[in-house]
C-alpha cells in the first residue's frame, strides 16, 4: 500500500531476479569482427578488414562468447566452425550491423541530395538490389539512385569512364588491375568459395 515499506526479507530472490533481467549489450565492433572472420574464413584476414590486431579480434570473439554464455565456435580440423549458437549470433550480427550503419547514415546524411550511379554484377545484382536500395532510400530519402545491372567487364568499363560512382564486381585479375589505378578506391567485402556443380 502507498506509504508502506516493501518487505526486504527475500533479498536473495530479489538479487536473482535482477540477474535474470540483465541483458548483455553486444559491441557492434566485435560483431563486425565476427562477421568478417566468417565471411573471409580467417580471423587474421578479418583483423586486416577491421583494422585491428589479430589479438584484439580474438579478444573481441572471447568477449562475445562470454556475453552469450556459450561457445560460438568449435575446432574443425585445422580451422573453426560455428556452433548452433554461433550461427544464430551470426544472423543477428548481420542485422545489427545493418541497422547500426543505416542509423549512422541517416543521422549523418539527413541533408544529402543528388544522384548516385551504382553498378551491380548480374550474377547477384537482382538478388540484393531491392534490399540495398530500400535501406539506402530510408537512410537518404533525398538521394536518387541510378542502378545498372551488367556483366563485370561492362561495369569496369563504365567505372573507368566515370559513368558509375560505385560498382560491386568480382575480384578477378582484370578487375584488380583496374581497381588499383589512382583515383579508384576498392575494398574486398567478401570471398566466395568455388563450388563444382554437375549432374547427379
Structure description:
With 200 residues, the protein is α/β, with parallel strands linked by helices. 51% of the residues lie in helices and 14% in strands. The protein contains 8 helices and 5 strands. The chain has helices at 11-21, 28-40, 43-49, 54-68, 84-108, 125-139, 152-160, 173-179, and strands at residues 73-76, 79-82, 114-121, 143-150, 166-168. Strands 4-3-5 form a 3-stranded parallel sheet. Strand 1 and strand 2 (79-82) form a beta hairpin. Helix 3 packs across helix 4 (54-68) and helix 5 (84-108) packs across helix 6 (125-139). The chain is globular and about 50 Å long. It starts with 10 loop residues before the first helix and ends in a 21-residue tail after the last helix.
Summarize this, please?
The protein has 200 residues and is an alpha/beta fold.
Lay out the secondary structure.
Layout: H1 11-21, H2 28-40, H3 43-49, H4 54-68, E1 73-76, E2 79-82, H5 84-108, E3 114-121, H6 125-139, E4 143-150, H7 152-160, E5 166-168, H8 173-179
Main attributes of the structure:
single chain, 200 residues, alpha/beta, 3-stranded parallel β-sheet, 8 helices, 51% helix, 14% strand, globular, DNA-binding transcription factor activity, LysR_HTH_N, DNA-binding, LysR family transcriptional regulator, transcription regulation
- Element pattern in H and E: HHHHEEHEHEHEH
Distance between the amino and carboxyl termini:
74 Å
Please report the total strand number as a whole number: 5
Our Rg estimate from Cα atoms comes to: 23 Å
Give, in spatial order, the strands making up the sheet with the most strands.
4-3-5
Q: What is the averaged pLDDT score? A: 79
Low-confidence stretches: 1-11
Question: Could you say which overall geometry the principal axes of the C-alpha atoms support?
Answer: globular
Q: What fraction, in percent, of the residue positions are helical?
A: 40-55%
Please indicate the percent range of residues in DSSP E strands (runs of 2 or more): 5-15%
Helix count equals 8
Largest pleated sheet:
3 strands, parallel
> Based on helices, strands and strand pairing, what is the structural class?
alpha/beta
